[in-house]
Amino acid sequence: MPHKLVVELSHTQLRNMKFDWHTIFINDLDPMYALEILLRTVLMFGFVLLLLRMSGKKGVRQLTIFEVAIIIALGSAAGDPMFNKDTAILPSLLVFAIILGIYRLITYMAAKSEKFESVLEGDPLYIIEDGMFTMEEEHDNTFAKDEFFAEMRAKSIEHVGQIRIAVLETNGQVSFYYYSDDDVRPGLPVLPKPYGERSKTISKKGQYACTCCANVEERHIGGKCSRCGQDEWVEAIDTCRIS
Fold first, then answer.
1. How far apart are CA 232 and CA 219, in angstroms?
2. CA nearest 163: which of 139, 127, 138, 196?
């Protein structure tokens, strides 16, 4: 009985609950401060664009991890002055100048030392060699096949056997080097429907690709891949690439 009373009270409280929408959306915002926020936002956004333009980059696809960190720092420095009346703009511009100075210094050091550049930005990473995923990638938990397959499909790649080499660049782009039509080998399909037919059991004899490392074997039953030891397979295809 007490439990039922508590439930009924809770339902009554919920029915009587009203949100103060004025407080949620406006609170004590006055028109003059709204105009000040507009001016602050335009100024800080303009300063951010100016600094990025001074960095020499043309687009997001060219950004390395280091440069993404720089942009995050800029966003943090620009955020508070946009709406916080207690935060002046000039100190944020000082932060901008320091960030730009650090960026210029580090990029200069990276240009002078390949070892320093490698530590800062990483090295290009081989993802595919000879129509198969490299074993290093198979042990890297950060390797997302779904995203990589989407990248391949955007390049009109139907299966991994069309690719001689694929390199993940330090800016996130992938460079593909293709087999000629005469050299295309059976490979792991990357289109959603054929890849969706993957299974640990094999019903008919044929060439099957390991879904883990893309190794292709002639098989008539399931079992473990001779290259990586995994046991999930999908029927390989050998179509030529249509560019």
1. 12
2. 127
